[in-house]
Design a protein that fits this description.
The chain has 9 helices and 10 strands. It has about 240 residues and is an alpha/beta fold. It has a domain of about 160 residues: 3-Layer(aba) Sandwich (Glutaredoxin), CATH 3.40.30.10. The strands form 2 sheets. The protein has an 8-stranded mixed β-sheet. The protein has a two-stranded antiparallel ribbon with strand order 6-7. The radius of gyration is 17 Å and the shape is globular.
Length: about 240
């Protein structure tokens, strides 16, 4: 019982909560009565956007691509521990993209007062920006509405008020997704998975940028943390080409 209590306390502190069932297919946070997104495909033209970062500076896709390709990261929010772990991993790996000239922009629909707190945990050296109305998430087909029972669950388990964080009665957020966009505005790589713990390896992103070859992640890979994946296995996810 004592060991269980310690584990529970650590989980609450880290803000890590299981968002999918153990089989990797049950997305209990998704309102199944609404359209379930799948993410844009490789070869699609990336929809243009203009967003504001946490320092109040505007970022547009068109402007960003003048300097090279873009890695566009969608994440649920600062309350999701695995989202944060991946952002920190990306931050530690920025030098890997130097030769390709790629920039990184990470978007969430969470209120900026919460996003700004990410820097209090670790200084992020890429752009953290807000998609408060979900316009960008919708255009990239990663926007989903959250089941109300999941909101209650998070509130009961960790005092995480999603309605407050997203400033909405009916909470909507962006599903975890990564798009690598070429300098010419085409999607070269697309990865979409509701499970925040399943993200591409940094080396996979570097390979895409270096080869200039478009590809869809056939099987979601896991983030690199000291060379070891966060989870050892998962069911294979069908790719879309």
């Amino acid at each position: 019982m004592k060991a269980y209590s310690i584990i529970l306390c650590v989980s609450l502190i880290l803000g890590v909560y299981p968002l999918v069932g153990q089989d990797g297919n049950s997305n209990e946070e998704v309102d199944q009565n609404q359209n379930v997104p799948e993410g844009l495909m490789v070869g699609d033209m990336a929809p243009d956007f203009t967003v504001r970062d946490i320092y109040g500076q505007n970022i547009s896709l068109k402007q960003a691509l003048r300097d090279g390709p873009l890695i566009l990261v969608f994440y649920k929010g600062s309350w999701e521990g695995e989202d944060m772990q991946y952002l920190f991993t990306l931050n530690d790996s920025l030098s890997s993209f130097d030769e390709t000239g790629a920039q990184v922009v990470a978007l969430s629909m969470e209120q900026d007062s919460y996003t700004k707190k990410i820097n209090s945990k670790k200084q992020i050296n890429f752009k953290l920006a807000q998609d408060l109305n979900g316009k960008v998430a919708k255009s990239y087909d990663v926007l989903f509405k959250v089941d109300e029972s999941f909101c209650r669950q998070l509130m009961q388990k960790g005092n995480i008020n999603l309605q407050e964080r997203y400033d909405a009665e009916q909470v909507a957020m962006s599903a975890p997704a990564i798009f690598v966009i070429s300098k010419h505005g085409k999607i070269m790589f697309s990865h979409f998975d509701f499970d925040s713990g399943n993200r591409p390896f940094i080396s996979e992103l570097v390979d895409v940028l270096s080869s200039h070859g478009p590809q869809r992640s056939e099987q979601p890979l896991l983030e690199e943390t000291g060379g070891e994946p966060v989870k050892k296995s998962r069911k294979k996810k069908k790719g879309r080409n």
